[in-house]
Design goal:
two-stranded antiparallel ribbon, MetI-like fold, four-stranded antiparallel sheet, about 400 residues, 8 strands, alpha+beta, 12 helices
Length: about 400
């Protein structure tokens, strides 16, 4: 019995065809091109960083983040956390970060309020109101934000009187060229009850809001949630304040020498930056609100009016909720722009992150690479956080398809 062994031969043309098909495969080529792109960018960044590190070493400047533990040796005019010259450069980073966050948050709130008011006024049937809103928008949004900051700081606030000739509201609030001064609350023993009452008031307000929404969905009846929330948030802390024996006093500002001492001070730099960025961003938000409202079908308004719903309630309950689906995405971009525009604070000396950390700290340490990367990372993080929060809200107001 003979066994026949067949010899298998490889056809070279088959190997060439498989290689050719692999090369012309879109998925394979996209992966290869992406890998090459990442490699080229990585090599380019490596060359830049390596050259920068070499230049710093040649000048006797060490690299790394050890400088954050060294004593800063300079003061900061506004600090939301405890700080003096003996603290480290790492502390200056957090002071600048909080000051930037303060301007961004307050600016977003101010710009949103003004923007919605002006945007609705732009659509008013009153010719004067509509024209005034249009003039406001066209003037403000076509003037660079830096010039507006300088205008508010030098042309408006620097024209205020000196400390001795301060504008006063009673004996508690004073306004002068050095800032706005008002009483500072001093919490004494037992004031914790007020904090607990405030937390309970917020929790009850949320519960009332959820209950009112369910009630409206089932019965169509509305509940005055705003008035109930206002009553809870004011009434409960006041009751706790009285029951605890009024444990909160006030530290009033007083003129001592050439300046006021005590109380809370709002620096003119903070006020100018906040007003300028808030108004500048509000002009763009107003146009976003106007376009969002006009995108809602006019038939919705006519149907609401036919049911006897007042014009204010029609705007609040019918038009605005539908317009928010259009307003929110571009509104997010304006919030991001306001946060990034806060870096213009250096022009008037407001101690934000760029001024304190990427300015004074960089000049004293020379750690340019580390400081610039940390500063860029902060603005990137703030932008991503804002986008994430706005995306959550956008998902809630988005139209749900069934």
């Amino acid at each position: 019995m003979k066994t026949t062994k067949s010899n298998e031969t490889v056809n070279p043309s088959n190997a060439g065809n498989s290689l050719s098909s692999l090369i012309y495969n879109p998925t394979f080529r996209s992966v290869v091109f992406q890998v090459l792109t990442v490699a080229v960018i990585g090599y380019f960044l490596y060359i830049i960083v390596n050259n920068a590190v070499t230049n710093l070493n040649d000048r006797g400047i060490s690299t790394g983040f050890g400088f954050l533990d060294r004593e800063a040796g300079f003061g900061i005019s506004l600090a939301l956390i405890e700080y003096d010259e003996t603290y480290s450069f790492g502390r200056t980073f957090f002071v600048g970060l909080l000051n930037t966050a303060l301007v961004s948050i307050l600016g977003i709130i101010l710009a949103t309020i003004i923007g919605f008011i002006v945007g609705i006024a732009r659509l008013s049937s009153n010719w004067i109101v509509s024209r005034l809103a249009a003039v406001f928008i066209e003037i403000v949004r076509n003037v660079p934000p830096l010039l507006q900051i300088l205008f508010w700081y030098f042309a408006v606030l620097q024209a205020l009187p000196s400390a001795r000739q301060s504008l006063s509201l009673g004996e508690a609030v004073f306004l002068n060229i050095r800032g706005l001064y008002f009483p500072k609350p001093v919490f004494e023993s037992g004031s914790w009850m007020i904090g607990i009452a405030a937390i309970i008031a917020v929790a009850l307000s949320i519960a009332v809001y959820v209950w009112a929404k369910k009630k409206q969905a089932l019965t169509g009846q509305q509940t005055p949630v705003g008035r109930i929330t206002l009553g809870l948030c004011i009434g409960l802390p006041v009751i706790a304040y009285l029951l605890a024996g009024m444990p909160v006093s006030a530290d009033y500002p007083a003129l001592k020498g050439f300046n006021f001492q005590g109380g809370i001070t709002i620096l003119p730099e903070l006020f100018a930056l906040l007003i300028a960025l808030g108004i500048f961003t509000a002009a763009f938000i107003a146009e976003i609100v106007r376009s969002g409202i006009e995108a809602v079908s006019h038939g919705q308004t006519e149907a609401a009016m036919a049911l006897g719903i007042s014009q204010s309630k029609t705007l609040k309950l019918v038009v605005i909720p539908q317009a928010m689906r259009i307003i929110v995405p571009p509104l997010t971009s304006e919030y991001l722009n306001l946060t990034k525009n806060s870096s213009l604070a250096m022009a008037i000396g407001y101690p934000d992150l760029v001024s304190v950390f990427a300015g004074t700290t960089l000049n004293q340490t020379g750690q340019a690479i580390e400081i610039i990367f940390m500063t860029m990372g902060v603005y990137l993080g703030l932008s991503l956080l804002t986008s994430w929060l706005m995306n959550i809200y956008n998902n809630k107001v988005a139209l749900v398809e069934r």
